[in-house]
Amino acid sequence: MSVAFRRDSDEEHLEPKFELPLPSGPNLVTARGKTLIDERIAALEAEQPNADEDRRTQIARELRYWNTRRITAVLAPVPPADEVAFGSRVRFRLNGKEQELTIVGDDEADPAAGKIAFSAPLARAMMGAMAGEAVAFNGRADAVEVLGVRPD
């Protein structure tokens, strides 16, 4: 039989499992973000003893990611009360629609819950702005009007 038709096991044909990618840049976190990292690690460690072999492999991979995120976490200072910064709750108008978002770390981001990462284009555009200012976004000089800012 030709070697092309012979296979010793399915293991050699599985897709490789790469490490979970780490976001580039600093690992800034809010106090809530640091707590979420700790809770995620605790949940994975609690699940690990009762998991089957495949799941234990997944858990080990996830734990490597979250432990790295915990080690590299930098607790951001409390943001100023009047300027958009990491940890700020921002009320703004974009395309005629009023919205409110909190600027948080990459792992804490949840756009559906009103939390965007500080690395997101919208957050980067608003950083440093104060209430009443218009900032450039998506090629428009006055696309975003900052209506209010407060620490979250």
Automatic annotation (TrEMBL):
Gene Ontology BP, a term: regulation of DNA-templated transcription elongation
GO molecular function terms attached to this record: DNA binding; RNA polymerase binding; translation elongation factor activity
Domain Transcription elongation factor GreA/GreB C-terminal per the UniProt entry, residue ranges: 80-147
Keywords noted in UniProt: Elongation factor, Protein biosynthesis
Annotated InterPro entries: GreA/GreB_C_sf, Tscrpt_elong_fac_GreA/B_C, Tscrpt_elong_fac_GreA/B_fam
Keyword Protein biosynthesis: yes
Region named Disordered: 1-25
Annotated SUPFAM superfamilies: FKBP-like
A Pfam family that the UniProt record links to this protein: GreA_GreB
Domain of life according to the entry: Bacteria
Basic and acidic residues compositional bias, start-end: 1-18
Record-given protein name: Transcription elongation factor GreA
Record organism: Sphingomonas jeddahensis
Lineage: Bacteria, Pseudomonadati, Pseudomonadota, Alphaproteobacteria, Sphingomonadales
Gene: greA_1
